[in-house]
Amino acid sequence: MSEPLSPSQASASAIESPLRTRTNVLVTVGSTRFDALVQAVLSEPVLAALRARGYSRLTVQCGNSEFDANGFEQQEEGLVQTTENGIDIVVWKFRPSLEEEYEKADLVISHAGSGTILDVLRLPRPLIVVPNPTLLDNHQQELADALGLLGHLRPSTVSELPQAIETLRDSKLVPFPPFNGSRFRELLDEEMGYVDSDG
User: Which domain of life is it from (predicted)?
Assistant: First the structure.
């Protein structure tokens, strides 16, 4: 009889298990507009990378982003496209909460908003973070890079997204530690330059 998994082992197995069937991908841009990310995830290179990894459903929370909605049909759950290439796509603007969507997702591709990152890493779910370079002072890039260096997520750019999806299985994502608000605040303050990291 095998011994029960420790919490960190259970978290690690939930992040990357070869036996887990992967089907659902959630893309979220939060409350901002991120046209480049929404357009990229609906493009053939990203869809091909998702198909190659075995994903069959793509849900996109697009916020106010603009994209080509040709080929989509308005249904109760949002704009829907059932494709012949093996991926069903649903696109909608906003929901009161994304918690249920995070729980259904086998992979999350997100802007680098700190709230989204924390929500996803606590579940845990594999997370690819694409900072929005159009935002003022690009704090998203700093946060994505810091958490990427710690191994909790895979940072990417819009143009590198297909490769990030393809290589994620080779990544050894480190389970995010249990919530400690003061430690996250310290890390965030350090990354933003509010405190001296040497002192």
Answer: Eukaryota
CA distances in angstroms from 128 to 16, 21, 73, 107, 166, listed in the order given? 13, 18, 28, 8, 11
Residue 115 lies in a domain: yes
Exposure of 179 by Cβ count < 10 A (0-12 exposed, 13-18 middle, 19+ buried)? Answer: exposed
**Overall domain count for the chain:** 1
DSSP code, position 146:
H
pLDDT digits (tens, 9 = 90+) for 51-97: 999 999 999 999 999 999 988 889 887 888 877 578 999 999 999 99
Domain housing 83: 20-192
Lateral strand order in the sheet of 78-82 = 73-75, 78-82, 88-92, 57-61, 24-28, 107-110, 127-129, 154-155
